[in-house]
Each structure stands twice: as C-alpha cells, then as structure tokens.
Design a protein that fits this description.
This protein is α/β, with parallel strands linked by helices. It is 23% helix and 32% strand. The termini are far apart.
Length: 131
C-alpha cells in the first residue's frame, strides 16, 4: 500500500457544546469560553493532534440521516499517580458528571476510572500503580 495515513483529529459529537467543553476543560483541554456557542470547535493537542467537537446539528447539516449511536468514542487521560486518578474522579463527579467506574487498581498495573461526559462517552482516567 503506497498511501500513508496519520491520525490527525479525534472528533466528538456533542448535544450541547457548552456542557461538553465545560467537562473537557476540567480535564485540561484548552478550549476558550467563546467557543461554548459554536457549532464546531477544534483544540490543538500536544504532539500536533487536534480534538474536534461538533454539535449533532452540525453533523446532520451534511449527513441528514445521522442519528446518535451508543459509545464509539474512547478517550483516555493520563495523570501523574494513583492519587491523582482518585482526585480527578472526585472533582468530575462533584461537578455533576456521572461515574461509570469508580477508581480501582486494575490487574494491568494502573489506577483506573471512567467518567461519562455530558453525551455519555466514557472518558478513562489512569496512572501507573507504584511498583
């Protein structure tokens, strides 16, 4: 195969841009407050990738038959240590976001938790366990 593709954008479809961006700002995504009412938002990530958010109406504007699915997006945020997983999980749930998996010590060697964003996408929080 002569074509080389590189992952460039991770896209998330959202019901409410402001609610979605508020959640992701708590995870360190640097989206300006002025973006809360926009139909499409892109945020540069370390390493040159981009995280893009589109409202459901934006997707329907070019794909009229589109309907929201279940799952489909998986994002994982690394933090420094196990205590930080617990603290971030607590901060997100205290802000009203729903926990899907409370922090636990996973058999693969990480402190791990999952919180749902406003659109029900699972967002993993993880850190290596001390050896």
């Amino acid at each position: 195969m002569g074509i080389t593709a590189r992952l460039d954008v991770i896209g998330i479809v959202v019901a409410d841009m402001g609610k979605a961006l508020a959640f992701y700002r708590l995870l360190g995504v640097d989206a300006p407050a002025s973006a809360d009412g926009e139909p499409h938002v892109e945020v540069a990530l370390p390493g040159g990738m981009r995280l893009a958010f589109d409202t459901q109406d934006t997707i329907r504007s070019f794909h009229p038959g589109w309907t929201p699915g279940t799952g489909g997006v998986g994002l994982s945020f690394a933090v420094d240590d196990a205590a930080a997983v617990d603290a971030l999980h607590d901060e997100l749930t205290a802000a009203g976001y729903r926990s899907e998996l409370a922090p636990f010590d996973a058999f693969w060697g990480q402190r791990y938790a999952v919180v749902l964003d406003p659109d029900g996408n699972g967002v993993d929080l993880f850190a290596p366990l001390a050896s």
